[in-house]
Amino acid sequence: MIALPKSIRVFERGWLSSNNVLLVDDACAALVDTGYATHAHQTRALVQQALGVRPLDLIVNTHLHSDHCGGNALLQATWPCRTAIPSSEADAVRDWDDTRLTFRATGQTCERFSFTETIEPGAQLTLGALQWDVLGAPGHDPHSLMLYCADERLLISADALWENGFGVIFPELEGESGFAEQQAVLEMIARLDVRVVIPGHGAPFTNVQGALESAFSRVAWLRADPTRNAKNALKVLIVFKLLAVRAMTFDALLAMLDEATVLRAAASMLAPRSEWSALLTGVIESLAKSGALTVDGTRLLAPAA
Q1: Which of 8, 35, 165, 232 could pair covalently with 17 via S-S, beta carbons 3.0-4.6 A apart?
Q2: If we measure between CA atoms, which residue out of 35, 42, 48, 39 comes closest to residue 81?
Q3: pLDDT tens-digit map of 226-258
Q4: What is the Cα–Cα distance from 264 to 256, expressed in whole angstroms?
Q5: How far apart are CA 254 and CA 252, in angstroms?
Q6: Which domain holds residue 283?
Q7: Is residue 1 part of a domain?
Q8: Rounded to an integer, what distance in angstroms lies between the CA atom of residue 224 and that of residue 239?
């Protein structure tokens, strides 16, 4: 059992929703990341059960991928809580700019939410009666942040470091730099004194050195052949979509490759448009073999919940 301060509670979620980290002290009850829209009511129930009659005071988003902020709107409607987002995303959220926010581009959903404040690298937050440094974590997402508590040697790493890897390097799909940034973030984590990592997905872990070695190896593997990142992105986004909708047809999924710009970019790195049907067939066969989905005629089904 990993020992965390009494002021911290981690709701470990699945791969559709990110973990939620509840930090409570006398002054503030704060939640770091709110999961996906499909699980918003479940997120609210978890927070209500933990807080009782006490309201939620603050939401902190490490980044604005839909699986990390999809519960924002419902929590804001339930409690008059403040919401802090990465400062570089402020204009996009204020204007709800579909071309800059990633929800439509990835074929996902997120109900519109507001924010009251912003955070950026170099800031300090008091959460759960602990002092946290805000660290930049570009790579997976150029706007992503992490939270580090030096006193307790805790790192809330979002999708920059998991026990077995890290999130898809999305900037590389659209011709932007991301591998170098991910490498730099891992090097920064290696310089920190970290006892426990609370990742965006998966259980908290203490084998930080082992996780870093695995992550460094994965960055090198992806950099050696960027199509590996594209294929991984395609697989991840297909599975994510199926987890949300539970079932869809092959033709509907093929249409998504054209409609969602991130999927289109990934597919374009792997095959010309005329070969996307064959590409998708191969990806689906691979996912079915691994148990990530089931094929029923022309329908694709998510695994049993």
Answers
A1: 35
A2: 48
A3: 999 999 999 999 999 999 999 999 999 999 999
A4: 8
A5: 5
A6: 227-301
A7: no
A8: 25
Contact 165, 218 (CB under 8 A): yes
User: Which among 73, 6, 86 has a CA at the least distance from the CA of 44?
Assistant: 73
| pLDDT tens sequence across 108-150 | 999 999 999 999 999 999 999 999 999 999 999 999 999 999 9
Decide which of 168, 203, 224 is a domain's last residue: 224
Domain end call among 193, 224, 255: 224
Q: CA angle at residue 173 from 14 to 255, to 5 degrees?
A: 75
Taking alpha carbons only, the member of 142, 140, 189, 137 closest to residue 167 is 140
> What local confidence, expressed as pLDDT, does residue 122 receive?
98
Distance CA 212, CA 215 (A): 5
Q: Scanning the structure block, which residue is given the tokens 């599975």?
A: 239
Beta strands in the chain (DSSP E): 8-11, 20-24, 29-32, 58-60, 82-86, 117-119, 124-127, 130-136, 145-149, 154-158, 196-199, 247-249, 294-296, 299-301
C-beta of residue 244 within 8 angstroms of C-beta of residue 221 = no
Tally of structural domains, the chain: 2
* 208 and 238 co-located in one domain: no
CB-CB contact of 64 with 119 (8 Å):
no
Together in a domain, 166 and 292: no
